[in-house]
Amino acid sequence: MTFKIGVVTFPGTLDDRDAQRAVRLAGGEAVALWHADENLHKVDAVVLPGGFSYGDYLRCGAIAAQAPVMDSIIKAANGGLPVLGICNGFQVLVESHLLPGGLIRNENQHFICRDQTLVVENIDTPWTNQFTQNQEIVIPLKNGEGGYIATEETLKRLEGEGLIAFRYKDVNPNGSMHDIAGLRNERGNVVGLMPHPEHAVEAGFGPDMPGTMRSGVDGLKFFTSVLNSLVNA
Known about the structure:
The protein has helices at residues 16-26, 68-78, 88-95, 152-160, 220-231; strands at residues 4-9, 29-34, 45-48, 83-86, 102-104, 112-120, 136-143, 147-149, 164-168, 180-184, 190-193.
């Protein structure tokens, strides 16, 4: 059985085609969802990809969170639909209150593009079950507003309830509190992170000179994980 994974395109989205390709490489069927859609076309999971939805006006992800498709996604996510938010998609999840906290301008005020080592903090989600606990993975990072912030009360809850999905290792590239790179919700079906797993799904692509990004295939497990969870649901 082939499962259908919806990939949303907002005006300004850049990485929807990459996310669709990642779904296909993992063995799923990629279904394009438009921001004005109210029908999710019976998809089995949803990816909110990276980019600059609506030009990042107001706040990153704030306008996209009000798009018609998000009404359907929020209802479906509250019902258990697996949802992954990548970079701008993570910002949309936060602005939609599917995940707590906020994302602000990087601490150094610069756009960052680098291969980033992450520690997998939680494998009990549809998007992370193919990893091992505390596994170190390398995922490309490219953002200007990736600094995660939250109240002390929220941070205590995230730590105490094991809701931090990924943490930066070796270097905190954007000043995120508690080195947070990604989160999950209480139910575990919603995951958001700033790095881009869809850019690390196929070996042999990208520059291979010293000092340039040389991404591997660690990101593919995000997409095989969700397919695995659907098979065993």
